[in-house]
Structure formats: structure tokens, C-alpha cells
């Protein structure tokens, strides 16, 4: 079962990542270069899609669990991990787990920004 799920997610990620690349570049080439419109649009679209997919699944399991895995973890995960991050935050908020909701957002954004900075700093030291 785990191997089957691995291939379902991998197949979806392949298409999601490819679609992210093309759509992001397409959008970015049509807007001002000083703001990352392509990535911004992809992230927001990914959030909308993952919300729609989980919403459909929550309303009586309309979507087969294998398709759900393919669409959410695979396609949306490959398209943008931002959508998964936002869905996890939404689930914490919906469960009224405000402490973990706040900590997850603050630590992810600040930690992610610090990690990017650290990565750049390390490359300068090499």
C-alpha cells in the first residue's frame, strides 16, 4: 500500500511541478519583474485548488482516496507546498488550536527566511 501511494504522489508531483514551472514563467513574463507575480499566483491558485479538493472530500467522500492523494499531496504538493502549508494552518484554525496555528505560521515564515539567508551565507563561506 505504501509503495502504491508513493507512486500516486510521485506521479501527481511530476505534473504539478511541471505545471508550476510553466504557469509561473508564463505569468511572470507578462508582469513587472520587481514582484514575483508568477510565484504569487501559483501559490494562491494552489491554495484554492487544495481547498476545493479537501472540501469535496469532506462532503461525503465524493472523491476516491487514491484520487484525493493524487490531487492534493501529488498535484498540489508538486504545484506548491504553500498550499499544503496553508491547509495545515486552516485545519489548526478550524480546530480552534490557535496557539499551534500562530506558532506554525510565525516559525515557518521566520524560520524559512532565516534558512534561505543561512544557505546563502554558507555558500559565500565555501
Protein topology:
Elements: H1 2-28, H2 37-58, H3 65-79, H4 81-94, H5 98-125
Helix pairs in contact: 1-2, 1-3, 2-3, 2-4, 3-4, 4-5
Poorly predicted regions: none
The assigned structural class equals mainly alpha
Helix content: over 70%
> β content, as a range?
under 5%
Q: Care to count the β-strands?
A: 0
Largest sheet: none
Mean pLDDT: 90
**H/I helix tally:** 5
- The end-to-end span amounts to 43 Å
Tally of separate domains: 2
Q: What is the C-alpha radius of gyration, as a whole number of Å?
A: 17 Å
Question: Any overview of this molecule?
Answer:
- The protein has 126 residues and is mainly alpha-helical.
- The protein folds into 2 domains: 2-95, no CATH class; 98-126.
- It contains 5 helices and no strands.
- It has helices at residues 2-28, 37-58, 65-79, 81-94, 98-125.
Keywords:
mainly alpha; 126 residues; 0% strand; single chain; 2 domains
Describe, in short, the structure shown.
By secondary structure, this protein is an all-alpha fold. Helices cover 84% and strands 0% of the residues.
Amino acid at each position: 500500500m505504501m509503495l502504491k501511494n508513493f507512486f500516486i504522489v510521485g506521479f501527481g508531483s511530476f505534473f504539478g511541478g511541471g505545471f508550476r514551472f510553466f504557469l509561473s514563467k508564463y505569468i511572470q513574463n507578462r508582469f513587472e519583474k520587481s514582484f514575483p507575480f508568477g510565484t504569487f499566483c501559483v501559490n494562491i491558485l494552489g491554495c484554492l485548488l487544495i481547498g476545493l479538493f479537501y472540501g469535496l472530500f469532506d462532503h461525503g467522500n465524493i472523491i476516491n482516496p487514491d484520487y484525493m492523494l493524487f490531487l492534493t499531496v501529488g498535484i498540489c504538493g508538486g504545484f506548491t507546498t504553500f498550499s499544503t502549508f496553508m491547509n495545515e494552518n486552516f485545519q489548526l484554525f478550524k480546530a480552534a488550536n490557535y496557539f499551534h496555528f500562530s506558532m506554525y505560521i510565525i516559525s515557518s515564515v521566520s524560520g524559512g527566511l532565516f534558512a534561505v539567508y543561512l544557505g546563502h551565507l554558507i555558500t559565500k563561506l565555501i
